[in-house]
Amino acid sequence: MTENKRNVEDMSIWEDAQQMLRKAQRDGVETVWDRLEQQTPHCPKGESGLCCRICTMGPCRISKKSPLGVCGAGADVIVARNFGRFLAGGAAGHSDHGRDCIEAFHAVAYGKTEDYQIKDEKKMLRIADELGVATEGRDVMDVAKDLADEFFESFGSRREEVAFIGRVPEKQRESWKKLGIMPRGVDREITEMMHRTHMGCDNDAANTMLHSARMCLGDGWAGSMIATEVSDILFGTPSPRKAKVNLGVLKKDQVNILVHGHNPIVSEKILEAVNEQEFIDLAKEKGAKGINLAGLCCTGNELMMRKGIPMAGNHLMTELAIVTGAVELIVVDYQCIMPSLVQVGNCYHTKMITTADKARFTGADHVKFELHNGMEQARKVVRMAIERYSMRNHDRVEIPAEPVDIMTGFSNEALLDALGGSITPLVDAIKAGKVRGAVGIVGCNNPKYKHDYCNVNLTRELIKKDILVIVTGCVTTAAGKAGLLLPESIEQAGPGLQEVCGSLGIPPVLHMGSCVDNARILQLAALLANEIGVSISDLPLAASSPEWYSEKAATIGTYAVASGIYTHLGHPPNITGSPLVTNLALEGLDDLVGACFGIEPDPFKAAELIDKRITMKRKGLGLE
Predict the structure, then answer these.
(1) Which of the four pLDDT bands, split at 50, 70 and 90, describes residue 2?
(2) pTM over 0.70
(3) How far apart are CA 269 and CA 283, in angstroms?
(4) Domain 75-235, what fold?
(5) Is the pLDDT at 4 greater than 70, yes or no?
């Protein structure tokens, strides 16, 4: 292991992370921070987007000396093509997750599985009505069949717009049509992006960027939104509940299983299996006091917000959870899973189990989950975990910190219930200035930043300014560990936000789910806009991903901007090699869709940028 030059205090703000980083150093375990040190400095051409490897006449690197690639493409075209393909990866990831959810729903509707059921029939019927699927006097499963087909249509190429576009304010829909960015089908837009960016196709950078917006809107208003709504139908719509977070949720005297990834289709079955008496008894036979299930990243978010299952950590905590020496199995589905988890697990007794053919990892054991055998495979996995308990070296177990309480489960349905069944009280609070605006802080961790420093400090600064904060994904763990996901944290908020949240008994920071559940934030924005009678771009809203790293995060940011929501990023995507593309992202999109990106690594300065934007939007509505 290469010695990392940074002190652990510079790597993370959390004591549990710092303690495990020290243990990793003692145990000779390489972590993401060590590998970052080995990879620094990064390639400047790659960072600025000026390296093109789309065809084998290259690769080409654009510079002042060589301003054109072999084919004749310049910096603007190359950067736009690279960014378009980057966004296509993110849109494909979230939307393929959505497709998996539809396939599960379809299997339930057609009686092809007994392992999954419709848990929220009321929501299914409501969405069917919304999308024009007949419900009156019909068998529930017949409605489900038609609704599954309707969802699949949003992935195809035969329509002019995706199903949930009806949620978008009418004025905004007309604007998208005029700009040519109305999403027609998830797969259609992703495929067209790959075609457009093939050598010899779209060589107008601005035109490529417009299609990027269209493709990302297809993810936000279809792929991700369908994933969220179908997950609620199959596994239950989240409602407020208590849970716990940080590495302290692991148990020294129990079999510890971690679920990691994004798709609840696997983790929900694991949860059922660990609660079966047969396995609890078996664990006790092996010397454990029971079985403990905890989550990582977005799969953890899914279980936490629906079932109150504890969360062990976010992206940069995944290796460190294994370093505790207390984890028997880490069960993964897909997305945001570091290949290094296999190697870190090999340093202890931890085995990594993969469950999806689209996400296999060399060195891991593969237990394929399918819709007809989910429960059978879950039982197999839990038995494997129990058998590994005897392999644990108890002298190497070190579990840091005490778990922190949080409140989770704020779906839009739960928020409306808290408001008395209508969005009007929130609109009234915004008009009165008690809630000056709202910001969705979402996304990842990146080892280039001090772990969660930006996420936590930006959240704190915004609630001080009477700005409601909504969190999803990895930011959830950060806000929870900071104590910001409890009603008592209103003491850290401004007086107006204190009054509103105090009267409702909710925190000033609301957890809305996993990263696909940013679609809930889009829907909430649309509800507010339709209530006031304006476009989303007119509202005092913003989004932020301070420590982002992934293609998905860039796609989320792009569909937020294209939907009219000003979006802050801690660092720019790899587009700075093109002034045209950079200026379009930072300014030009504002003229087209009413929003743009803002770049600022300092969370305190970022809070000021966002506050200034919210003030401007309030003035535009006559509210200041």
Answers:
(1) low
(2) yes
(3) 18
(4) Substrate Binding Domain Of Dnak; Chain:A; Domain 2 (1.20.1270)
(5) no
